[in-house]
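Trying the structure run again after the queue cleared.
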Amino acid sequence: MKNELTVYEAPRQKEFSFYNIFWIFVAGGVIGCILETIWCCFVFGEYSSRSSNLFFPISTVWGLGAVIFTLLLKGNVNSGSGVIFLKGYIMGGMFEFACGFLCEKVLDVTFWDYSALPFSLGRYVNLVFCCFWGLAALVWCRKVYPVIQKVLMEKAKKSSRILTQGFVVFMLLTTLMSGAALLRMSERSQNLPAQNGFERYLDRHYSDEMLQKCFPKMKPADLERV
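Done. Tokens:
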């Protein structure tokens, strides 16, 4: 019995290792960034980058959403489409609210606001747009994740892990730099002077105008509350 458990547990541990979770985050984030950018082009008639990173085209919201969907829906792969859609609908709405709320409280900015639209619950959740999360969960479970899973299981070699480690460092540094630039922008809006060389560097190279071009849908939280 012990040997049988070992045989069956090993694939699951390998499937949800840090190596795989990280690349699921990257794949979901890049795919989400591309699709949302295309959607903005059709809806608003203009190019609008939906990246969350100053140095790499990736949406942190979609990347984390892909990880959450993978971990929480792994037991529903063979469930009915309605079950997967409903779970994605609910989890996506809760997750979108959490991301919007944290951006407002930590960075003092908003990247979206549904309050002026019908069927909205506050600023960060819209009951109609939650359908996209439900559809995303369904497509992810049925189509996208099986392909990613197959690729990851085939590429789990030493050379691939070295590449992963290097890319993890890159993503960590660029994410921290992007967050620091946004935090410094929030401080500038409060007329707080730079306190050290790093903050002066951010003021020189990451001005409000430059950040606004990188995040065109970003608005000060104070302005959104008016």
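Residues 1-13 have pLDDT under 50 and may be disordered. Worth checking whether this holds up in the mutant runs.
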